[in-house]
Amino acid sequence: LDAVSCRRILMSSCQRDGYRPKSVVHVIDDLTEAKDYYDTITVMAGYHSTPESIGDEFDDLVASARRHGATRLVFLTLRESLAFPAAGSQGNLSVYSGFNDTIRDHLPSGSTLEVILLDWNGFSAPDWFTGDGVHTTLAGTLGLGKYLSDSFAALEGRPCPRSIEATPCHVPNRVDTSIDLLARYGVPSTD
Fold it and tell me: Which of 37, 65, 106, 168 would give a disulfide with 73, using CB separation of 3.0 to 4.6 Å?
């Protein structure tokens, strides 16, 4: 797991608290150079990209995953928030809606690398986010973990974690808002 705030897909990442993280592509390239290989690479990034660059950045990400020898690249759609400061958002249309469309248009086909787009934007609940609509609350972080856990179980044909059923899991497409994730996982609220 290499998760850090402000990481960009390809371009130089934004600086935060005196630290500028490497881009996703550079992290994958470093793993390849160190011969530290992974079959599946999961990416949740792109909020600091531009409408002009997102397609090329995604293509470079796919190329980097191929160079690495990964067999699967999982990319989470961007949360289509109007509150997060993004140049290009207009009226009721978030610039991230266009980013998600561009990424869908750039999905490769017929390659040895399976590229899967998980619809985090469609699955997540509005109350899982801080006021900017992008950064998660504690409940949102638990929701993201559950979404990823269930999605990977589905991709591998396994039962859902913490499920009493032995049937294979499916990639969830909508959150069950009746479930209190904090209570389910025994996590005290700090929000």
Answer: 65
β-strands 72-76, 114-118 pairing: parallel
Phi, psi at 67, each rounded to 5°: -60, -35
End-to-end CA distance of the chain: 24
- Percent helix, strand, coil in the chain (nearest 5)? 35, 10, 55
Q: For residues 93 and 170, give the distance between their C-alpha atoms in angstroms, rounded to a whole number.
A: 30
Q: Could you tell me where the beta strands, DSSP code E, fall in the chain?
A: 40-43, 72-76, 114-118
Nearest to 75 by CA among 36, 40, 23, 110: 40
Q: How far is CA 182 from CA 128, 169, 176, in A?
A: 11, 22, 14
- Sort 26 into a burial class: Cβ within 10 Å, 0-12 / 13-18 / 19+: middle
**119-152 confidence digits (pLDDT tens):** 999 999 988 999 888 889 999 999 999 899 999 9
Asked if 191 contacts 138 with a C-beta cutoff of 8 angstroms, the reply is yes
Instruction: Report the amino acid identity of residue 111.
Output: S
Closest CA to 119 of 76, 151, 82: 76
8: nearest Cα among 70, 67, 71, 78: 78
Q: Is 133 exposed, middle or buried (0-12, 13-18, 19+ CB in 10 A)?
A: middle
Whole-number Å distance between alpha carbons of 49 and 57: 8
Query: 168 - beta bridge partners?
Result: 159
